[in-house]
Write a structure and sequence with these properties.
This protein is an alpha+beta fold and 97 residues long. It contains 3 helices and 4 strands; from the N terminus they run αβαβαββ. The chain has one domain: 3-Layer(aba) Sandwich (Aminopeptidase), CATH 3.40.630.30. The longest helix is centred in the middle third of the chain and has 16 residues.
């Protein structure tokens, strides 16, 4: 876990050396997915972030989340395999809107 965290932190610092928001952890219990709860979690944050005029960074290890985040305006800026694992990390950025 420490190596995973160090790798993700390094990628984050390298890809976003500018002021931004970082949405680190969000989630919806699988039994409630598909009911709009992700939007209910994200939209208030996007409103606040928009007022500040900053981009927003997010990362996921789950490919199914990529499409969800793209729906909310994020674009994949890097896809990488975490060294010495079979895990894939998608780093995504939502530009100022």
């Amino acid at each position: 876990m420490r190596r995973l965290g160090e790798y993700i932190d390094t990628v984050h610092q390298r890809l976003t050396p500018f002021k931004h928001w970082f949405l680190q952890t969000i989630g919806v219990d699988p039994q409630f997915q598909g009911n709009g709860y992700a939007g209910k979690l994200l939209r208030p944050m996007f409103a606040r972030i928009g007022k500040e005029g900053l981009p927003c960074y997010i990362e996921t290890l789950d490919e199914t989340n990529v499409q969800l985040y793209e729906h909310f305006g994020f674009k994949v800026i890097e896809k990488s395999t975490i060294p010495k694992t079979s895990l894939t990390n998608w780093t995504m950025l939502r530009k100022v809107q």
